[in-house]
Amino acid sequence: MKHILLLGSCLLSSAAFALPTLFVGEAVNITKDDVQVIKQLYRQEGGVNKYAETAYEVEVPVYGTWGLTELDVQLTGDIASAWYSSNFAMKVSVYCNDEVVQTDSSYGLRHDRSSYVVKPQIRVENHPINAGCETVKVRMDKVGSLARMYYTDIASIDLRLYVTSKF
């Protein structure tokens, strides 16, 4: 009995960290916990490699696109840096099966010990999906020098992705 309870709790905990699944007509929320962090070697200090977080990426499976020829895609939300980070810029791109749907560049500011968020706005109507759309990928790239990327600490990502089709 003890082993069954342990197995059940493991299954529940692994389900809580699963990537979101998107059905056409529904929205999915994407947080920093959902994304894969992409890093690049910044420098070596005292024999230790220091890496800069250069981008964040999440790929979401999409269901319900069979027979559709067009999709509407909308991405909104906030990307915030830590209060001690400097001004920063992000290039946010949405892909359907590794084909770019649209890209938006947004800028965040630091003023009076407060960081203001990046607010990407992507809205595309009637995007053709001739080969279907099994996955939607959202990629967020820091913009600027590698040093700027190293010292800009992204504290939170809170995005809402909505994919629908007109009937």
Automatic annotation (TrEMBL):
The keyword Signal applies. Residues 1-18 form the signal peptide. Keywords: Signal. This is DUF5625 domain-containing protein. It comes from Pseudoalteromonas luteoviolacea CPMOR-1.
